[in-house]
Model the fold of this input.
Amino acid sequence: MLPGGYTSVMQARDRDEFRDEVVRFTQRLGFETVSAITVIDHGMGKSEFIKVDNTPADYAEPYTDPASYRRDPVMQHCKRASVPIVWDQDTYVERGAADLWEQQASYGYRTGIAMALHLPEGRHFVLGVDRDQALPADPEELQRLVADLQLFAVHAQDAAMRLLVPTPLQPERPGLTPRELEALRWTMDGKTAWEVGALMGISERTAVMHVTNAMHKLGCVNKHQAVLKALRLGLIH
Done:
């Protein structure tokens, strides 16, 4: 697992930093190219696509061709399912899209892993990584790759929604008070309730109350989960 990448992508402050963290994690995982797509459904069959990737410049136009999207078996899988798809040439041949694979293979897109997170309010996050070399033959090693990518996708989608989606379209964030946020920040640093109280100049009981209130507002069952969610939402850094 590559835990540093999860933290870093959550702490991205803008689109460029988000892209850099996504590309860095992808390459550490052993893949050359990546596409992270945030999809917003507007109803009446219309959707908005916000994409961050490192697609080769000379492949950018065919890569974004709507007609290819509709035929691409990987994209169609992600559109309908939440389970990851591990794909290669056979995936395209079996679905009558061998020509699409031949086209992308010349740019290094020979095999890869893709997945989609389907969220409330018509929000979706698609993450796909690709490479020229074959994927590991060892099932356990391949399973670890998929698991690492799934966990990264969970963290990346929160950052993508915060940084890429226009503010009016973002889901409402919990309204934590400055004291609740400060208590969470000290908790993130590993401080006990007694230490948080001493640092904030309040009693231990009041420190516990601030953390508990933050947990309830964030819909979390413990303080560690609350810290992680606050980080993902960009409420603390």
Summary: The longest strand covers residues 33-43. The chain has twelve helices and five strands.
